């Protein structure tokens, strides 16, 4: 199994993985991936096993993240491993690649988030040493 940066030739398989995590992201896929491939503040790493992509992590540099004291902060924007490959160490290796990237960009802290209902994601973060720093409820109003 190999962890490596996303390449343009990965895009068809990457689309399937990304829409598995974010089903509503299909319409914005080309724009989002173009940003990842062309912006030094964004990166994506993929897990490849036997010629198949089985997971990915998207990471960014943010100026601020809840609970962090430094800037910039490495931020796990998205993290996904296909269900049959979970709990095999692939997710851990993907996050390590994201953390290494952030460290190389000068970050001393890493942050992430998870929806309140995503207890599996929260547990995965905790297993990798991430500490919960805040819970919030977001609001919206049409004007």
The CATH superfamily is identified as Gcn5-related N-acetyltransferase (GNAT)
Secondary structure class reads: alpha+beta
Radius of gyration: 15 Å
How far do the termini sit from each other?
50 Å
The strand line-up of the biggest sheet is: 1-2-3-4-5
In the CATH hierarchy, the architecture is 3-Layer(aba) Sandwich
Shape: globular
What share of residues is helical?
25-40%
Description:
- Its EC number is 2.3.1.82.
- It is an enzyme of class 2 (transferase).
- Keywords: Acyltransferase, Antibiotic resistance, Transferase.
- The chain is α+β, with helices and mostly antiparallel strands and 143 residues long.
- The chain has one domain: Gcn5-related N-acetyltransferase (GNAT) (Aminopeptidase, 3-Layer(aba) Sandwich).
- It has 4 helices and 5 strands.
- The chain has helices at residues 11-21, 29-38, 90-104, 119-127, and strands spanning 2-5, 42-49, 52-62, 73-81, 110-112.
- Strands 1-2-3-4-5 form a 5-stranded mixed beta sheet, with helices on both faces.
- The radius of gyration is 15 Å and the shape is globular.
- The model has no long low-confidence stretch (mean pLDDT 95).
């Amino acid at each position: 199994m190999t962890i490596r940066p996303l390449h343009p030739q990965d895009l068809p398989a990457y689309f399937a993985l990304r829409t598995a995590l974010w089903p509503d992201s299909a319409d914005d896929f080309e724009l989002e991936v173009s940003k990842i491939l062309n912006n030094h503040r964004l990166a994506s790493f993929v897990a490849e096993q036997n010629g198949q992509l089985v997971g990915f992590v998207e990471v960014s540099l943010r100026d601020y993240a809840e609970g962090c004291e430094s800037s910039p902060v490495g931020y796990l924007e998205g993290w996904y491993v296909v269900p049959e490959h979970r709990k095999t160490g692939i997710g851990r290796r993907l996050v390590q690649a994201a953390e290494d990237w952030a460290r190389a960009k000068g970050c001393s802290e890493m942050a992430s988030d998870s929806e309140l209902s995503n207890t599996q994601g929260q547990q995965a973060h905790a297993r990798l040493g991430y500490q919960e720093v805040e819970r919030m409820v977001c609001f919206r109003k049409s004007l």
